[in-house]
Amino acid sequence: MQSLIRKVSGLLSLILLGIMLAPASPSHAASISLSPTPGTYNLINDWHNRCLAGRVTRSVVIFDCIDSYTDQVWQVEPFGAAGHVRLRNVHTGQCLAMPGWDNGSKAAMYDCIDSYYDQWWAPEITPNSTYRLRNYKTGKCLAVSTTSTGNGRPGIQYTCTLNFNDQWWHFWPVA
């Protein structure tokens, strides 16, 4: 009887080892990304379920996602320090920036300048596969105030906290 238990135990160990060493399937491996790939995206706030929009007035707000609104389309460009990107608004050609230092400071858009660290963002994966966008200059995350809902709420920065989904962003590919 002990011989049979040893054989079954050994066989189960080999099967388990094979499962652990087997490579992930291509579709599974592609679905787990530590950073959004370069391309064009709508950035959808998880709490508000609205798109980040860059206005010609340099303001950054959320608004209902509308396919034909190019101010809601952002070009993700790898940039600066490893793991950082620059987010260029397709409508204005300007980059998402964080000019202030304090919690609640409003995001803005400015001409894209390589040496401006407030235009560098580190996408950090969250437990629900969205991203937090941590600003390189301030170390704080892009958020949208939850004090009220509706269109026109400004993009702000706040101390990064994983359990605040007003800091979570979906990168929705735009064709």
Automatic annotation (TrEMBL):
GO terms for molecular function: carbohydrate binding. Residues 1-29 form the signal peptide. Pfam families: RicinB_lectin_2. The keyword Signal applies. SUPFAM superfamilies: Ricin B-like lectins. It comes from the Bacteria. Residues 71-158 form the Ricin B lectin domain. Keywords: Lectin, Signal. This is Ricin-type beta-trefoil lectin protein. It comes from Couchioplanes caeruleus.
